[in-house]
What we know:
Elements: H1 10-27, E1 31-36, E2 41-46, H2 53-73, E3 81-85, E4 90-96, E5 100-106, H3 112-147, H4 157-163
Helix pairs in contact: 1-3
Amino acid sequence: MSPANFVLYEEESKLLFDGLVRLRQDANARAVFLVDKNGQQIANAGDVSQFDITSLASLTAGNVAATDGLAKLIGEREFSVLFHEGEREHIHISIVAKRAILVVIFDDRSSLGLVRLRVKRANLELERIFEKMLQQSGSSAVAEERSQDSPFAEITDEDIDALFRD
């Protein structure tokens, strides 16, 4: 199953949101985002009103993709953590379960060490949620396949052609 190929149910959405809220509080961050690798926001927590969330999500995904290319150029499989340091604001980016991108925006009220420590713990929690989502998506796919076992499933193209022959 591809990284973006999962279904986000309400229960998992709440679990993801709760995990991001906890991470934001524990890391003393301004905002936390979870983005898929296609650049679509999955969830966020904190003071996000001042950010263009769509741009942030797509630029973050592009940044991760470019960094993956750099990693491969030097013989690395991936760089799982990125850090951008500004004068006042800093961004910590990490990959979650090879499916999503976790973005933590923080300022000088926190530290990189604290953010890294809290992200590590949050990553484990988020990975468990994604694993549950993947299992449920797999179960849904099996149920969908079973529902397609109708009497019409056995009709072949030849049968259809035979119906419409003159």
